[in-house]
């Protein structure tokens, strides 16, 4: 069921809207005196909100700073603000409300109705559940699933504020790593001294002047640069179009032709999913066998070639890694593999690899194998050449200002050191305290009893949904959720605290993940819908209950924090001018246009070594060898995934779950623009014509996709762009289970596996997935994922005194920790916005130096601040 205009407020102003915001209010539109415009910003771009009578009636793009406003901004923001799915009041699941001291019937989550309560009751019950958990099990039992911080683009994100609150009362166990690039962010610091996946790329000007070939590998910048963790620049397209006009050749290795491929006329090479490691292994072998490897480069800039060569020529396993060997694995002709290797070595080639590649079994091997090939070909560090893993994000190639940006409230140091890799959440719930390894450390999973979720849709992100729901219901006493909308996570929670959207609160952000050349005011546009509160206010009230209100707020309102944040930046406008205009520009030095990724290392590897143990590119890692991590060899090797087309049963297809076109993960799924992703309200599944015909499926049919982990219903979209044997279901659809346990909405994680990549990174292998599909003839109802949860009235009144809150809160009060050093404040305030704050001991100091080399420009820290952070990390990093 596609959302319609009935989702807007039923008031006279809103019902008069007859078209989308862009059509009604183009940039430069002058309004009558009863209509005002207020500058603000989102992940989808900066804008001016058009407000009449206190109601948002349109979104006006700012074309001089956003050359490519998307419909997610011009339509979606307006649509979802007044959606029927808004949670307007505090809600408590009926069983918990009526027996807070007894059995909460967790098996009824997702089925039982909610009861509206007032804020005093909601805060009291929330404080009670936290205090009871800490009292009985300790702070480790409070687990933060607030993983992403993608809920809005301001510096004071929900998960940051959550960390700040809980760290003041003794801490919480947290997630480690991420779903985006979890395998590579662990392996690549050992290989090339930086995470790479979050690093700035060679400047566009250098590529345009020097590059002859761009090799896209699972990379679709046209789509994925539409959104950003901060405020999207939308400046990429014009540069890539200039690359094409210049005559740069584009080659795309991908099972699907992407929007980027169409825009730049890529030569398509369709490859079997999860086999890229075999391809680049064979390409490396071919360069060696034909004498086209760059021996001088290998000797000067790398270590471990002798060991890697032994693997290539089969000394280890008796298998020579020839193009003919790779043909059987990848499905690509050996002649094409040789041609591709020779094209890359004879032309100035920039490799642009996407993150999706490494979301696979043994994902650590994939980007590593690309780096090994690029090094053997003598490419890394040369102008317009090498391997980059962030071209598809943050407008890779965008020159960076290097200036100080606003930073948010510090989370502070977490007294609890227990972490859980994101993909292991279900495993943690089923096996509390289980031993595991990650990045060479021997660890144990937290013993969680309460899940606190702010700004994240856990039931959309996490793989193997059925496993997750059972694990939650079997092992977790309480789930507390901050959420503006009735997404699946809210529906499966026990206490739901309605939060404001970005339009209903003040915050501040910056332009671009890498550019850092603009600062945006995220001004409040409208009054909160219903009784929703912003996360700062909610955690402030909880902080009052736990007697840490002064420490949490520092005696300031959010507006005052925003003002202080701006004034600590390198912006030159005074705050009043900035707040009125909504934007402050920050200059970018001309030298930024000449940036070459690893250029300093290439120019002088002695003076500018990489932050690896050897200071060079490690084709073989002695450090990884010493870890003896399960399923992670010390050099990139082809290891067959647990599921792939090479072991598929008759009728099975490989299922990939790329990023959607009109959503940011699960955000915008409840907006009108989601119609681009749906057939009759269900998530689309892209199917090759041949596969569809074999199963009697036609365009627009409801399709049932299934494997041993679960079943979903999706709308068939037949396309010639997908290769046979592979189907595509975009991630992010909301969950709704029918009576047979099938997701009626098309949520991909009904099918994906929670098996980690290996014992090194413990990252997601979501794109390693086989399933069957067939035409569905027994869909029970239209998709109901985008309808509110059932709410009933109850005469039951919670006896606050019976909860013994005073006694419980006093019993769990945390002692004040040591005062944070300036470097610690900067680290937790500006360098950990992406996810839950990592512990300094997660990496060695040498690794931190490599990681912060890319992190500091994104954080916008000046030289003085960088040194303070490095001093803090040097004292607290992992030894080794």
Structure description:
The chain is an alpha/beta fold. The chain contains 32 helices and 31 strands. The radius of gyration is 26 Å and the shape is globular.
Notable traits:
880 residues; alpha/beta; 7-stranded mixed sheet; 6-stranded mixed barrel; 32 helices; 31% helix; 16% strand; globular; disordered N terminus; Trimethylamine-N-oxide reductase; molybdenum; oxidoreductase
Rg, Cα atoms, Å:
26 Å
Instruction: Work out the strand percent.
Output: 15-25%
What composes the largest sheet?
7 strands, mixed
N- to C-terminal separation?
56 Å
Pfam family, one: Molybdopterin_N
Organism: Photobacterium iliopiscarium
Domain Molybdopterin oxidoreductase N-terminal: 40-82
Keywords: Metal-binding, Molybdenum, Oxidoreductase, Signal
Present the secondary structure layout.
Layout: H1 12-15, H2 21-24, E1 35-42, E2 45-52, E3 55-61, H3 71-81, E4 91-93, H4 94-98, E5 114-116, H5 119-137, E6 142-144, H6 158-168, E7 174-176, H7 184-192, H8 204-210, E8 213-217, H9 221-224, H10 236-246, E9 249-253, H11 259-264, E10 267-269, H12 276-289, H13 295-301, E11 302-303, H14 305-312, H15 323-330, H16 334-346, E12 349-353, H17 364-376, E13 386-388, E14 419-421, H18 425-430, E15 435-438, E16 441-444, E17 450-454, H19 458-461, H20 465-475, E18 478-483, H21 488-491, E19 495-498, E20 507-510, E21 518-522, H22 535-545, H23 549-553, H24 558-567, H25 575-581, E22 583-585, H26 599-603, E23 617-618, H27 622-627, E24 653-656, E25 678-679, E26 682-688, H28 689-694, E27 702-707, E28 710-719, E29 726-729, E30 770-775, E31 791-792, H29 805-811, H30 822-830, H31 845-859, H32 863-876
Parallel strand pairs: 5-31, 6-17, 7-14, 8-9, 8-12, 9-10, 11-23, 12-13, 17-18, 18-19, 24-29, 26-28
Antiparallel strand pairs: 1-2, 2-3, 4-5, 4-19, 15-16, 20-21, 21-22, 24-30, 25-26, 26-29, 27-28, 27-30
